[in-house]
Amino acid sequence: MKTDRRRFLKTTGLTLGAASFLPAFAAESSAPPSFILRPSKMKLGIVTYNIAKDWDLSTIIKNCAEARFQGVELRTGHAHHVEVNLNKEQRAEVKQRFRDAPVELMGLGSAFDFHTPDQSRLRADIAATKEYIMLAHDVGAPGVKVRPNGLPAGVPKEKTLAQIGNSLRELGEFGEGYGVQLRLEVHGQESSRLPNIKAIIDTANHNHVGVCWNSNQTDLEDQGFDHNFDLVKNKIFTVHMRDLYLDEYPFRKLLTRLNEIGFAGYCLAEIPESPDPLRVMNYFRSLWLAYQNLL
Question: Quick check: bond before 50 cis, omega within 30?
């Protein structure tokens, strides 16, 4: 009887011990597919705003190659001087330099926006964006980043969102002729809220117009991160990322959701300048990989 009792207690203890792991296992089994089950296809790049704003093209290519960043978005107005005033030969030279380098010119970053109620200014910004689209084509960049920069006071929100969307449709049609995408940065006070971005993209309704996810704190507002991500997940062309150590933003979750949708585009570091940029870039790359379970 004593032996049976000891056997019973031992068996019961093992059963209860195993049961204690069930909640954790159940939670894990309901988690999104891991990066082990679905290998990441994402690429890492840099925005020249702000860390590389004072670098010329040679320095950009050298530093990106050394830090193993695969691409770069060149922001207008910076020291690399890839602007619409370049002549045909200069544009061809920029294109060739990136063709010869292990770094892709994945896009141009403009500051054009289309929310203004001033119709003459709106038409000027649209015309200027078309010039930038032609520049992107000539230097081998497959996309141009544009943005809204807020919602003007005194104008119905729906009117402004429709105006931005209609402007992007016109530019998408123009860009399609040059093989250049329009990437709408999730930007500006109130205009950065994802329901507003979705309304713009729905109005544009063009396959060459998509979203540049910008990793804003407003991504967590309204109905939350997952709901906001789902609003535009089928139209995300590129991603801007702030410093990855900021625990106020769910960067690991963002990368997981991007991997779920098979995102194969660029995640671009949009980070402050540093006196030791390569060290910062190396840390950024390591954390970016670690968040994907690749380290």
Answer: yes
